[in-house]
Structures are given as structure tokens and as C-alpha cells.
Amino acid sequence: MTTVVKVEDVHKCFGANKVLNGVSFEVSKGQVVAIIGRSGSGKSTALRCIDRLESIDSGRITVCGHALHSRKLNLKKLRTDVGIVFQSYNLFPHLNVEQNVSLALRLVRGKSRSQAAQTARRVISQVGLADKMHAYPEQLSGGQQQRVAIARSLAMEPQLMLFDEVTSALDPQLTGEVLQVMESLAKGGMTMILVTHEMSFAAKVADQIIYMHEGKVHEAGDAGILRKPRTPELQKFIGGGL
Ligand SMILES: Nc1ncnc2c1ncn2[C@@H]1O[C@H](COP(=O)(O)OP(=O)(O)OP(=O)(O)O)[C@@H](O)[C@H]1O
What we know:
Blueprint: E1 3-14, E2 17-28, E3 32-37, H1 43-50, E4 58-63, E5 66-67, H2 75-81, E6 82-85, H3 97-107, H4 113-126, H5 142-154, E7 160-164, H6 172-187, E8 191-195, H7 199-205, E9 208-213, E10 216-221, H8 224-227, H9 232-238
Parallel strand pairs: 3-8, 3-9, 6-7, 7-8
Antiparallel strand pairs: 1-2, 1-4, 4-5, 9-10
Helix pairs in contact: 3-4, 3-5, 4-5, 5-6
Bound molecules: adenosine-5'-triphosphate (ATP).
Adenosine-5'-triphosphate is lined by residues 14, 17, 19, 37, 39-45.
């Protein structure tokens, strides 16, 4: 199986705070990996290192064939191969949905206005917002705005999608509609890494669960580790069950 992400013995400090303390894991093409763990365990930092939004102190990370430690790293190509969606949507308020999604296609991918609009319409329909094509962000719910943010990433045709707690700011109903889009992406074969607090979603969709604890991969495996955790730390984290 093709390896899309290889993280090897990664260490990272913020000042005296050791945030990643020897993290290693691999993600194969088409796999969905959920990173779970307590607040402050280093989940988001690990994810951000994969897109080179954070640099690392030691270790190696290879993503979609890009060696992130290489001096020859093509950051622009890395960023087009890897899509990342955050908790905050960061849409342009003065642009409508179609324009928000097509902007990067024109600026980064150099597509013509009509080519970009065509791709935008396809991915906006994919996230279930065909009827909101000309709406402005303020006219959309949080869940709809988050789906636009996902569409914006999809438009770049990434090989890997990273999701950093994308439903944390949403109420349960809106969370459901965003998770549904993520689930359909997973079923479509997209390689995905998600940092999430949605345990039942992780159990349902992820091929691999990574439990981070104090900057390390403390326990990893398929969804079975959520039903039968081996370590007291993961048992305690899951608490009363899914
Ligand atoms: N840019 C930064 N500068 C300094 N410290 C940071 C920075 N980013 C993260 N940290 C610290 O690194 C530690 C891990 O943060 P990180 O966001 O990776 O944790 P997390 O497991 O994703 O937590 P949460 O679930 O609350 O988002 C925390 O102690 C945090 O304060």
C-alpha cells in the first residue's frame, strides 16, 4: 500500500514546553486516521507539522512524497497536495460561496475564471450546497460555512485532507451535517487525518485511531482500541464509553 504520510520520531518544543516527544505514525493511501486525546496532548501541533505550518525540532516527516526537512521542499506544491480545514472557517465575507471556493483556483492554480467556476460548482454540490452558490457567508449557518471551507480545500484536488477539530464550534445538528460530508469523502477514498473529539464518529469512520498522551502516540490501532483500551490512560479518557 502506498504511504502518504510518514512521521518518524518527531520532537517539538514551544520554549520549555515539550509538545511532541517522539511521535511516529504512518498513513496509507485511502486511509482515514483519527487523532484523539486530551486537550494539550499535542494533536493539533502534530497535524500542523504535517502541513509545515509548524517546523519540527528533530525527526522526519514525509508527506505525499515531499520530505519536509529537505532544503528543496516545494512548499507551494506541498500546500496544493495537502488541504487543511480548521475550526474557524476563514471565508472572505465580501465574496459569495462560489467566489470563495474559486479564488485560490485562479490565484494559486492559475485557472481561468470559467474553469475555476466550473470546479467550484462541482465541489460545492459535493458538500450539499448547490442551492447556496451565490449566498454570502453571513447568510449561512456555521455548518454551511464549514462545508464551504471543505469545498474550498477540495477544489484544489488535494491528495490528503487534514481536519483540525472542524466541528468544535458547531452545535450537534450542524456538527452532523459536516461529519456527513467528511464521511462521504472517506467513502470516496480520500486520505484523511482528523483531530477530533467526536469519538463515535472516529469509531465509525476511522481505519486507524491514534491516541496521543503527553506528546506521544500512547496507543494506536483500529476502532477496537476504543471498545477495549489497553492502557488505563485511554480507558480514563474514554470514560463511560462512546
Ligand atoms: N504556537 C504556539 N506557541 C506556544 N505554545 C503552543 C503553540 N501551539 C500550541 N502550543 C502549546 O502546545 C501544547 C499542545 O497544543 P496542541 O494545540 O497541539 O494540543 P491539542 O492536543 O490539539 O489540544 P486541544 O484539544 O485543546 O486543541 C499546549 O500546551 C499549547 O499551549
